[in-house]
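Hi everyone, sorry if this is the wrong subforum. Our group has a chain we'd like a structural model of before ordering constructs, and none of us has done structure prediction before. Sequence below.
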Amino acid sequence: MANKSRPLTFYYKTIKLDDDITFQQILESLNNLSPDQRKLVEGKKTYLLNNVMDYEGMYYGEIVCFETDKVQSIIHDAVKENNLLESAITTKDVAANEAELKNSTSEFVNSRIIFGLSDNHLAINPSMLGINRFVTYFNFLLNTYYWKDPKSAKVLLIKDVFQKPLKEKLKETHVRNVKIGQGVLTKHSDKATEKPFKLKDKSLLGKITDAVGKSLGFNSAMDDSNLRVNVTIDYCRNTSTEGQKVLDDLTVALATLDDSYIEIDFADGSDYKQGNLRVKGVIKQQILDNNSFDRNRLVEEIHSFLYQSIE
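Answer:
Right subforum, don't worry. Here is the predicted structure as tokens:
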């Protein structure tokens, strides 16, 4: 019996791919792939399509991320010398109660992307892994086992679906500028030849420094600095038809960035920002007494959200 829950934000998006059948049909054609075939291994991290099921015509699945030999830290409420005690465990310290698990190896799950799919319509909770990971994983899976053409790799694309007022605004009014902002994300480096803190590869500022060919590093930790970097794309006085099309297209091509990083200013002086851009909904993930979650109930809720979002 579920006794607690946590909120999950799901986004409604659409899939674009160069094929004669839908994304759902492609994935259903790959249902017989083994777990080993579905694994995408990057260093110690493995990504795996798991828990696939059909619910009233909707394809449900999860991309699960786990890490080999991960050590999990635990903090206890026991006090020693005015500090809370900590310990660390691996999966070897967790007893396997089910007989079918006795001879298997186990790893801790880092995170999971949860999604429901109907044709090319997608409801997704990207979790900490993000939309880019969803795209990367399925580009790997489809190019390896469906398209199978190493000389001509195809690409799956995610298209945003904006809320109706913004969609109407985009039809009627030109975009004046698009601001894309993000916290300055850093990672620690222990290498003597590198600065102590470097920009994370996926940060916005990291992408900019790659583009201009400059390497930026910081001499102290930046995580508490609350710095932000913003890119504003606009035009002076007037722009050409082609320039305006670039701005309008860019506005509808920001599917992998969080809402809070984007602000759209229109030529009439109005704007959209801070979480008011995309079609999304909050679904409660019910937690069971054994600390797993009620997957069947979650699937039903995702199905309702997805079909209510499809116009």
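For your construct planning: The chain has two domains: 4-68+109-161+279-309, 164-273. The first helix runs from residue 23 to 29.
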